[in-house]
Structures are given as C-alpha cells and as structure tokens.
Amino acid sequence: MLNRRHIRIKVMQSLYAFKSTEGDDITKDEKFLLHSINSMYDLYLSILALLIQIHKKSQDYSQKVQNKLSAVNAIEDDGSKFANNQFLKLIGNNKMLQGAIAKKKLNFWDLDSEYVDILFKAIIKNPIYEAYINNETSSFKTDKQFVLDIYTNIIAPNDKLYDYFEDKQLTWVDDLPVVNTNLIKIFKKLGPNASETALLPELFKDTDDKQFALDLLRKTLLNSSSLVKEIASKTTNWDSERLASLDGTLLKMAICEFQKFPSIPQKVTINEYLEIAKEYSTPKSSLFLNGVLDKIVKEYQSKGLHPKAGRGLM
Question: Does the record's keyword annotation contain Transcription regulation (predicted)?
C-alpha cells in the first residue's frame, strides 16, 4: 500500500515534529514513525467500515420504504437495488475485514452516524444513483461500478468527511490520497469470488520498504551534524531561517540518501524530494533544493565520492 514517496513523507514528518539531534535517544522518533505509518492502515479500514455502514443505511432505508408501500401505492425507487448491491455485500460479509475493524476499534461510525446520513443523502440525490437504479442490468460488475462511481465522485471529495478525518487523526489528511488510490485499485481487481484477504493488503510492499523507512530516519538523525555542515558549505547565501524550516529537513534526508543509500540513484532522490517540497513547503523551496542538491551531486561526481551501484529502490 505504501509507496517510497509516502515513506519519505512519513520520515520527514517524524524528523520535523521532534527536531531531535544525533545525541538524543531516537526511540521516540522510531515509535512515532511506525505509529504514523500504521495509522494509515487504520484510515483504510475506517473507510471500508464507512462503506459498510452506508450500505446498512441503504438496507434500513429500503425496509422503511417497503413497509409503507401497498399494492396500489408503489413508488419508482424502493431502495432495494442499493440495499442488494452485490459488491457492498461482498465487503460487508468479509469476516476477516470485520475482525480487523473490531480489533482496532474502528467501528466509530455508529457514534458518528451523522456523516453516514450526510453521505447517504448525497448519494441518493446524485444523478449517478438515478442512472444506477434505472439501469435494467443487474450484475456484480454494474454493482461494483456504482460503488466505484459514488466513492470517486461523492464520498472521497466530500468536504465534511475530509474535515472529520482531519479532526480524527491529523496525519490522515496526508494519507488520504494514497489510501484512496489503493482502495480504487483493490476494488477494480475484486471479483465476486475473491478471497477475504483481497481486501486486507499488506501495508508495506515488502520488508525492504519497512527497513528503508527506519534506516532513513536513523541515518538522517545519527549523521545530523555532518549533514548540517555539508548543507552550510553549499548555502552561504541562504538565511538560517530557511535551513531551519522544512527545507532543511528535506535537504538532510536527500543528502543522507546520496551518502548512505548506494542503490538509490541520485536522480531518483532529487526528483522525489523536489516533488515533496512542492507539496509541503514554500513555492520557492523546490528551486532552492534543486540548486543545492545539484551542486552537491556535481561535487560528488567530480571527486568520485559516494558512488551509486545496483538497481534503484523505487
């Protein structure tokens, strides 16, 4: 689920939050990093729990509507198609998923049911819903496409849900784009006979990714003094406030990758940190980082320092 860029962002947040130095006990930094990474999986499970609750809401709605109907008093939509959505049933009936949600105590949508109500009303008032109930075709494929459409166009962009996630867990706002992308990928691959584990992907692609996260944090912290000196020698015309900001953290991480991660190409490192700077720092930060990092790479190459070998780790 996690990609390398998001791992770098998590490390950046940990380093910037604590501003530890190489003489400090870095245990707290490591714990914060792993907690921040693991909370991303909690967000993923929370969204699935939300979809389950929205489906339950549709079932309750359908039952109430049908109870009011008589043989001569029929209405165009009794909510049954939404209530019987095969794709949502596949999610809701997944015992392993239910267990994972319960274990992490992420069944909070019962208490925060107002958000379920808001989203359900937004769905049934949307043209996507009207097109769905008017579609005479009824299949797992059409049911899945409906869920993909309402999630992409109604649920994921909802401002109130965004604010709710931000209040619930601050780091979730940064995690949302990655989680949403992964959720859509998983949904698209899911078939009617999918195993229960298909909805429970691994957080890390492999053990190398988890080790990369810890190594980047540790090596940046343990070599902080030398990294600061390296930056200072290349930034004589830049004020100390910029170096004390997020830019300084990103520079230390990037130079640490140059020096301590021989299998990551320098170009990959530069591109990754420029993209992170564009998203998280000031408008001029990417230009600043690019200038400093380019100068350092040229110096390393001319002196034969910190050569790279092997394939990249992206």
Answer: yes
pLDDT in tens, 109-163: 999 999 999 999 999 999 999 999 999 889 999 999 999 999 999 999 999 999 9
**Which amino acid belongs to residue 151?**
Y
Q: State how far the alpha carbon of 300 is from the alpha carbons of 133, 230, 253, in Å.
A: 63, 12, 16
Q: Which two tokens stand for residue 65?
A: 């509507």
Closest CA to 36 of 163, 172, 212, 204: 172
Predicted confidence (pLDDT) at residue 20 exceeds the cutoff of 70 = no
Domains by residue range for the chain, with CATH = 25-199 (no CATH), 223-303 (1.10.940.10)
The whole-model pTM stands at 0.89
296, with CB counted inside 10 A (0-12, 13-18, 19+), is buried
109: amino acid identity, one letter: W
Spell out the long-range contacts of 80-85 with Cβ–Cβ below 8 A and sequence spacing 24 or more. 81/132, 81/133, 81/138, 82/55, 82/58, 82/123, 82/124, 82/129, 82/132, 82/133, 83/55, 83/58, 83/59, 85/55, 85/58, 85/143, 85/146, 85/147
Q: Which amino acid is it at 276?
A: I
User: Residue 312's pLDDT band (boundaries 50, 70, 90)?
Assistant: very low
Residue 218 has φ and ψ, to the nearest 5°, of -60, -50
Looking at residue 296, what is its pLDDT? 96
| DSSP annotation string for 108-173 | TTTTTHHHHHHHHHHHHTSHHHHHHHH----SHHHHHHHHHHHIIIIITT-HHHHHHHHHH-TTHH
Is residue 107 helix, strand or coil?
A: coil
Supply the pLDDT for residue 269: 98
281 alpha-carbon distance from chain centroid: 19
Cα distance between residue 210 and residue 292, in whole Å: 28
